[in-house]
Design the sequence.
């Protein structure tokens, strides 16, 4: 059965954040709140965690997983970013966006898109997510908590635990997150392409 932490959405308790990160480092799979929806999260090198997420969500190898980063400088270590792209990222982070960018060698190959060698990256604007990432000291492999056959992500942490108590190791309750996913913008080409219009406005990209 999964553990359940209630963490203050604005002032996360350091003790609980540290315990959650210890679980991530030990290879556990967690559910945590973000500025758009609740999300699955595991350590970047956690192969088993990646496969567990694929199984829960019934995803194929073409799904873009996301690296949740603590800030723009960390994001820049895992993606190839030119000056023009950097300016757009700076205007949009932290925020409810997922960016598709060319992956660097710091990103495990199993996380890349198999043909494009791209990866999703984001800097969430949520105190709990940012506290987890700061304590972890590296990006967290992440994807929206959207279950197969469902039209919207789950929003209630107690319901999430009830449905996934044998599939994940920890559910972090941080209040209501909403059901609108991130705006997904492909910045791997010469011009930005919106792949999904979500919570983040398009103005930072001139669209």
Sequence:
């Amino acid at each position: 059965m999964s553990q359940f932490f209630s963490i203050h959405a604005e002032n996360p308790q350091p003790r609980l954040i540290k315990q959650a990160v210890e679980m991530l480092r030990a290879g556990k799979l967690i559910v945590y709140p973000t500025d758009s929806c609740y999300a699955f999260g595991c350590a970047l090198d956690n192969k088993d965690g990646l496969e567990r997420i694929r199984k829960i969500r019934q995803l194929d190898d073409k799904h873009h997983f996301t690296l949740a980063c603590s800030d723009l400088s960390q994001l820049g270590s895992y993606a190839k970013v030119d000056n023009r792209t950097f300016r757009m990222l700076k205007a949009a982070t932290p925020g409810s966006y997922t960016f598709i960018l060319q992956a660097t060698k710091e990103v495990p190959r199993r996380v890349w898109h198999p043909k494009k060698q791209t990866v999703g990256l984001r800097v969430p604007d949520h105190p709990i997510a940012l506290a987890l990432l700061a304590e972890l000291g590296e990006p967290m492999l992440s994807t929206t908590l959207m279950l197969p056959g469902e039209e919207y992500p789950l929003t209630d942490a107690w319901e999430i635990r009830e449905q996934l108590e044998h599939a994940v190791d920890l559910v972090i309750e941080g209040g209501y997150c909403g059901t609108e996913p991130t705006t997904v913008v492909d910045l791997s080409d010469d011009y930005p392409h919106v792949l999904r219009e979500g919570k983040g406005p398009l103005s930072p990209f001139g669209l």
About this structure: The chain has a mean pLDDT of 92. Helices lie at 14-25, 47-57, 72-78, 83-92, 127-136, 157-164.
